[in-house]
Amino acid sequence: MKLNILLGVSSAATQIEGGGFSHTWSDWFLKGWIKDSSSPANANDHLNRWKEDIDLMSEMGIKIYRLSIEWARIEPEKGKYNEEAVLWYRRLLEYMKSRGIAPLLTLHHFTNPLWFENTGGFAEPANIQIFLGFVEYAVRQFSDFVDEYVTINEPNVFAVMGYLNGVFPPGLRSIGKALRVQSVMAVCHIKAYDLIHKIRRELGFKNTKVGFAHHARVFVPKSNINLWHKLCSALVSHIFQGAIIRACLFGDFVFPLKRYGKVQRGEYADFHGLNYYSRSTISSPADGIREDAFHNDLGWEIYPEGIGICAGELCKMLKRPVYITENGTCDNNDSFRCRYIYDHLKVLEDSGLPVERYYHWCFTDNFEWCEGESARFGIVHIDFKTQKRTVKKSGRFYSAMIKNKEITDEMLEEFVKAQEYRK
Does the pLDDT at position 212 exceed 90? Predict the structure, then answer.
């Protein structure tokens, strides 16, 4: 199979950097909400091992890397910026450039500074301007190295997990606040999209691309003849992803979202950023998994066809190139990850859709939010005690795909054919 899609990797600052910064996830750890009691202050020690990690990326042939910056590190107090943190990121970006690795920079990936959270965070429409202030500062600091930006990662997941399910900070269970957070974050994306383009025009930079990373699933009723199942499936899909994608792409705020401030209808994405992991099978107004489905180590259904379905739906809404900004699986023993990657790439290559990039989630095992160090998504193994990096079998497969720009029969035999999903 020829590979026309450029292959890269993804990460998030909180999940790899380490360091004792005053943000929502360090606070969540202190409150005892991490499954294995591991701390984001440790993570992968990327703060000190960044050059080693970039060198390893380069040795594996990786040329594109989606990374994020830590807001709490750059702006530890409102309006007060940490120049040392900025210089650290600039050194990182400069070194990436020297190794031929192009950045896709995410400005917000699940983590708020505590000072921002204590003002109400994204549940308060008045805080939109605070977020935009950070966006402006960051873009002005990094524009000489970064042409492409993700404004916000998975605003729907951030809202649902933190404000409805209560398992992410701030740990609330309020559908009203969850919907308000989605609405506010959609406005933040739209205004950040315009702001980034404006700043870079002023600075004389061209080729600016801005989007957001949308977490999408396939939602299906448990029974196609059960009207309640069908109604719940449509409702959950609309509330989780349908309404917010319309708001972020077009400034079109439909029920149950609300337009906060002056936001014009338009087109607010230069590419579709798609994070895809699984399918949900619905029989009530809640998430569910198909009985007897193949699943990963977190119990998520493995459904490769869904990545093509979700990418196709985005393209029908707005003609833009597609970047798979995240796709990967929790496979603690690396026993089926090669098959998972192959199956999802094959769906994309066969789809005929304008999918230009695939950023595997993730490069190294990391601090996986509530799961801590217990859930491994990387193609590079991390020994969290020694911080030793070891390329997994899936990493060797990924590197071979990049080098060969195809998946040969020999590669299938070596990496894929012996691997099986489990139920």
Answer: yes
Instruction: Please state, rounded to an integer, the average pLDDT across all residues of the chain.
Output: 97
| CA nearest to 311, candidates 284, 274, 340 | 274
Q: Which residue has the tokens 């997941």?
A: 157
Residue 176 is which amino acid? Answer: G
Q: How far is residue 258's CA from residue 196's CA, in Å, rounded to a whole number?
A: 24
- Nearest CA to 294 among 279, 309, 284? 279
124-153: pLDDT as tens digits: 999 999 999 999 999 999 999 999 999 999
Whether pTM exceeds 0.85: yes
User: Which sign, positive or negative, has the C-alpha torsion 270, 160, 112, 128?
Assistant: positive
Separation between Cα atoms, residue 187 and residue 258, nearest integer Å: 10
Check: CB of residue 13 under 8 Å from CB of residue 70. Answer: yes
Structural domains in the chain, sorted by start:
6-416 (3.20.20.80)
Q: How far is CA 205 from CA 52, 98, 163, 196, 201, in A?
A: 30, 20, 38, 11, 6
Sign of CA dihedral 331, 334, 335, 337: positive
The Cβ of residue 44 has, within 10 Å, a number of other Cβ atoms equal to 26
